[in-house]
Amino acid sequence: MRFRKGLSQVGGKCRVAVMWDAWWVLAAAVAVFGLAGVVKGVVGLGLPTVSMALLALFMPAGQAAAWLLLPSLVTNVVQMRPMPSLRPLLRRLGWMQLGIVAGTVGGMLWWGPVGEAAVARTALGVALVVYALWGLWGPDLQLPKRHQAWLGLLCGLLTGGITALTGVFVVPAVAFLQSLALGRQALMQAMGLCFTVSTLALGAGMALAQGPGHAASSWTGWGATALVSALMLLPALAGMAWGERLRQSLSPQVFKRVLMLGLLALGIYMCARG
After folding, report:
1. What's phi and psi for 108, nearest 5 deg?
2. Euclidean distance between CA atoms 247 and 128, whole angstroms
3. What are the extents of the domains in the chain?
4. Looking at 77-91, 151-165, 219-233, which range is the least confident one?
5. Cα–Cα distance between 31 and 63 in angstroms, integer?
6. CB-CB contact of 114 with 167 (8 Å)
7. Burial of residue 243 (number of CB atoms within 10 Å: 0-12, 13-18, 19+)
């Protein structure tokens, strides 16, 4: 009897510890998505980059990517407004979107779900370092129109491959979009379009790579993961709204420099851990 009582007490303590760990992870994720939403509201990008970089510090990359789907999709659809001016961008960036879908889905079918490749963590660190260095010191390039279609396809394939490995879809897509000499509003809209396509391709790739009956993360199935992803949408939207207000009083250039330095430090840290 004493032995059974001891086992019961140990089991109870383990369940409490697991529940505490789960609530801690959820609370930390809420803070991460709120911060990432603020970043996106101020500079127009960075929600997946900041989220994946910080979430990967305390959860598997595949789980982080699954939680990211709805916050990323909804905030990027919001960023695509106004819809009437979207059609010209679709025509101009169509080959790039095709490359993003092919690279993301093909990469996940080849390497497996996000984070399962042996080099996934290092690849995410490298992507963050490259992205930060480009944001800090990258040159302003302008591509001739005659090269934009095939370079857009190539850039989309590379972006999709990096997305499949890391769950981050800003490299090299943002650099390519900045080289098209788009106006400020058109650039924001183009980033929203590319990020939306990347998010949808990421979700499709996860479903195909894992199969409909496979768990979407280490401790939840698809239904529970979708619920958590929907909950993370709330802090992301709240942070984005606050960031848009903050943008009116804060220099985006100063904020972006601080952000890039932080991402550079995170990327170096993740590369060192391997």
Report:
1. -70, -35
2. 23
3. 2-273
4. 219-233
5. 16
6. yes
7. buried
